[in-house]
Specification:
Extracellular Endonuclease, Chain A; 2 domains; two-stranded antiparallel ribbon; 13 strands; 37% helix; 21% strand
Length: 318
Amino acid sequence: MPSRRKRQGKQKKRSFLKRWLFLLLFLVILLAGLYWYVQQPLASWNELKRILHAYLSHGRDISISETTGDIYHLYYGSAVSSSYTPDDSSSVFGGIPTRTNGTSLQLLVNTGYCVGYDELMRLPAWAAYRLFDVPSPVLPERPTAFLPDLRTAKPVHSEEYTGSGFDRGHLAPNFSIARCYGEEAQHDTFLLSNVIPQRHTLNAGPWKALELREATNYTGRFEKIWVMAGPVFGDEIHCLPSGIPIPEQLFKIIVQMRNGNIRILAFMMPQDCPEEKDFQKYLCSVDEIETKTSLDFFPELTWEEQNALESKPAPSIW
């Protein structure tokens, strides 16, 4: 009987010690965290507050894992440091993309976005736009008609797509532009100089999912982003019955810059991709897009910055 009491006494003592050790460990971790926090520069404090505020705000569709990832990136993430100062009045980040094959493009400037238009192909080679956070957007009704752009030499008409089996696919998206810039800008996205032939599975699948992510999630998390999109053609070009060329793939480049640090997501999505929302598998490098399109992006960045940003695909979606 005494030995049993001794064993119980020892067990209670061990249990008591474990509780105190756990409490002590918790306090050490808490104090270490508080010490680390107060040592952070003011800019990091403000950025951390902004990230947490974005997560707690309604209507931005931001997950806890994305918020955790953004906090990790704030302190340990890789980005390219740059002295480049973007112009918030411009739709283009890093300078107007140029052609490297000797052909020229017509620059068409619209409300909320601009286009590099290929008169020979009768298609946009690229469209660029800047999106920013709008906490309480007022969205106008979607227009019903696509319109010819009379600034082009031979305007495309909506009937040239009718019965082709292809959607009239926006490059600068109707929803995002309307959300940021209003009704007049939304109407400008329905100019056919902003449209390319697009399979419905792509247009309503991963392409649309990425557009929605740009408009709400990325603007909520990063405040503003810049986007460029356009067609990618293969060696053999097929056309609609009206003669409009059909791209083999579509590209998209998303740029985020914060506190002098730049990072990029680049995608190429094939026309025959399944109608699923997964766009992670379409990540590529900007260099791949430049090779396939004969476009040179970000000419106003230094060669070192371009090389660091363009040579490799992002490891994952933000």
